[in-house]
Amino acid sequence: MTRRRPAAIQIDLARPTDLPTLAHLMAESPLLRRYGTTASAARRALVRGWRSGDHLLVARAAGAPPVGLAWVIGSRILTGAAYLRLLLVAEGRRRGGLGARLLAAAEAVSRKTANHLFLLVTTDNAGARRFYERRGYRHVGDHAAFARPGLDEALYQKSLRPYGRRRPV
Ligand SMILES: CC(C)(COP(=O)(O)OP(=O)(O)OC[C@H]1O[C@@H](n2cnc3c(N)ncnc32)[C@H](O)[C@@H]1OP(=O)(O)O)[C@@H](O)C(=O)NCCC(=O)NCCS
Hints:
Blueprint: E1 9-13, H1 19-28, H2 30-33, H3 39-52, E2 55-61, E3 68-73, E4 81-89, H4 98-111, E5 116-122, H5 126-134, E6 138-148, E7 151-159
The structure holds coenzyme A (COA).
Coenzyme A binds at residues 29, 31, 86-89, 94-100, 121, 125, 127-128, 130-131, 134.
């Protein structure tokens, strides 16, 4: 019997037809459920992001639905900061390097226009905090009950360009 190799996963930009799958991925996440995320609210948020020109990077096998998302919002605030709104990999696909690849793609797309990448992580999300810290993110402070009552956020930042090569804002 020949064993099929798992299809290679690529990182590319989401298409409008991916938004319902991404909304379900978000609604199934225990992390996002703590923030009251439902599939319909996630879908509305994704459509708003899509229309606003946010970068929605997805991980998928060719022709297959996405199994991961990195959602980046551009801005000119804080001396040129992009914001990683969400990094999410489907539960059955974790610990295989997809999160790291999506984060690297989010940094690459941000570096084109921004000098820094900022993100928030729930303070008790120890695994994700370690994940970001190992990849050069600096914990710059906490926001108690910032997005949702009872949930505290840790703010992280990574500079994407050295001082001499910063983009004007
Ligand atoms: C964080 C997340 C995106 C990582 O995706 P992934 O595909 O598992 O990431 P990788 O396989 O590239 O790397 C796994 C790394 O994360 C660490 N990690 C991530 N979540 C972890 C957890 N819950 N517990 C322990 N370790 C965790 C692993 O130890 C490993 O660390 P290392 O490579 O630095 O040794 C994924 O766990 C996820 O979707 N979590 C839920 C959403 C979330 O917390 N997002 C971040 C806040 S927006």
